[in-house]
Design goal:
Blueprint lengths: L5 E4 L16 E4 L6 E3 L4 E5 L2 E4 L4 E6 L2 H7 L1 E3 L4 E3 L8 E6 L5 E3 L4 E9 L28
Antiparallel strand pairs: 1-5, 2-11, 3-10, 4-9, 6-8, 6-11, 7-9
Length: 146
Amino acid sequence: MPLEVKIINRSNNPLPQYATAGASGMDLRASLAAPITLGTLERAMIPTGIFIELPEGYEAQVRARSGMAIRQGIACVNAPGTIDADYRGEIHAILVNLSAEPQTIHPGDRVAQLVVQQVEKVVWQPVDSLAISQRNDGGFGSTGKN
């Protein structure tokens, strides 16, 4: 059964929606009065006009769109950006232009995707040691290249 989430749409765009039946993320669109051009390495918070009320125990993640990344070199700076269940403000996509040319974001452009997931709360259990694993403390490329 789908999760029901309260939403306010103050943009001129349709509600976020899944592009295909198997999609995990819903497209977020730019809610802009006029186009915004990002220079190389320039960042901007792009408003979406979307406000949501997630149930306790859930989060929404703002993620990059692969098409924008490969075609325009535009990425989400804090991907995934977390929208907590108690946040009621407008959702923004924080974008950066990683290409060598200026890139323009137009009103209504699909600028990010939104994924809603259930999250667990953690209760820390202080201990003096941790179980040994095959990887143990190896990280940052320690498993080598294949």
